[in-house]
Amino acid sequence: MGSDVRIVIVGASLAGLRAAEALRGQGFDGSLTLIGDEPYEPYDRPPLSKAVLLGIMPPDHAALPFRPDLDAQWRLGVRATSLDLEHNRVVLSDGDTVEFDKVLIATGVRARPWSNSSEAALDGVFTIRTCDDSRRLNERLSAGPRHVLVIGAGFTGSEIASVCRERGLSVTVTERGPAPLVGALGGVVAAVAADMQRDHGVDLRTGVTVTGLDGDGNGQLCRAHLSDGTTLDVDVAIVAQGSIRNTDWLFGSGLAAGPRGVTCDAGCRAFDINGIVTDNVFVAGDVARQPHPLYDYQLLALEHWGNAIGQAEVAAHNMIHDGLRRRPHLEIPAFWSSQFGVNIKSVGIPTYSDQVVITQGSVADRRFVAAYGFRGRVTAAVAFNQGKWLDFYRGLIESAAAFPPDFDVMDREEPFEVRASELPDPAVLSHGPTVAVTGHLPTERRVEFVSLPK
């Protein structure tokens, strides 16, 4: 690709940075521009709800290293407001425009704010997504609040609750579901997460929601109202109710972009609103909505660190290669979380399951592996303090191995009991893995169809 080609990357976080590095690493010598709405160079977000809140890492130490020869133009602290595909340009919030030949959308997500704007403005109400969010919350937790409320018991909420207990703070967690992490891991494993929280002194309230937040008349948070009619005296509330994909700026662009993300093919090329793949618009990271062959080509939007890097590298490769030299993104999703002294790791997609079985270790010891299955195939595995085994389970998922797994293990202490994974009814989904992923080198990665078990 010639040096006169202009590539613009909208989103200067993990996916955007890694795509830029991959472009330069593969010999792209044209113009490269990165646009980011925060005034900071790219930084790592996972430590923001862990090490930074524990006070063991200053926020500015979360910066991501990058190659010194990146030779990019940085447009930081300015937001992209629209994408003009007729004239191939990005319009910025300061009125400027940046023209491109190819563009990568890597705008990620933002924290979902508290629904009542006046209550959200109270001193003591926080969300956490950015470096500044983490810095402000760390300062408040360091000041020793009397009681902390965490609204939502997903991974971020659970990690914050863990931090609060590690800092010796009194904390209540509210969760509309029956247990923490239930929406991601299902009821069987989520029950273990609930026990972990309560064992560490968390006041866990499940099956309830926060219906309102009160101020003390001086703009300071003082009270929370719950759906069961109870109230809590709190001076800090962290809203951890998920995220919103940053696609607003793409409305009217002609792309297949909406609240669920920007739809793209397995090669990270964006679709337009007619379902036709584009040639010069690519997507990567949390904002991407992409089909995966192991999950019946359903469109998946994954907010995972490793997935962002994998998509970024595939997008960068395909931006400067054509035809048969293009690659698909076929990596198996994986994520990790550290909370209450336990390292939780996952491979595959646990929500695409209707059954689960403890294959190794002991639930009572918080040291085990749970394998998930649907329609007779292994679809995911989750490990509590047993992450060393996940490469083995990744192989089972990629090869569409039969569920329940048919192998002998030496360290299983639990009865080998296949149970319902207690996730949404899979009958309303279509996610039977009917393919296997083969090949080791990026140029060899492909899929082949396999027969479903009788």
TrEMBL record:
Its cofactor is FAD. Its EC number is 1.-.-.-. Residues 6-311 form the FAD/NAD(P)-binding domain. InterPro entries: FAD-oxidoreductase/Apoptosis, FAD/NAD-bd_sf, FAD/NAD-binding_dom, FAD/NAD-linked_Rdtase_dimer_sf, Reductase_C. Keywords: FAD, Flavoprotein, Oxidoreductase. Transmembrane segments: none annotated. Residues 335-406 form the Reductase C-terminal domain. The keyword Nuclease does not apply. Gene3D superfamilies: 3.30.390.30, FAD/NAD(P)-binding domain (3.50.50.60). It is an enzyme of class 1 (oxidoreductase). One of its GO terms (molecular function) is oxidoreductase activity. This is FAD/NAD(P)-binding oxidoreductase. The lineage of its organism: Bacteria, Bacillati, Actinomycetota, Actinomycetes, Mycobacteriales.
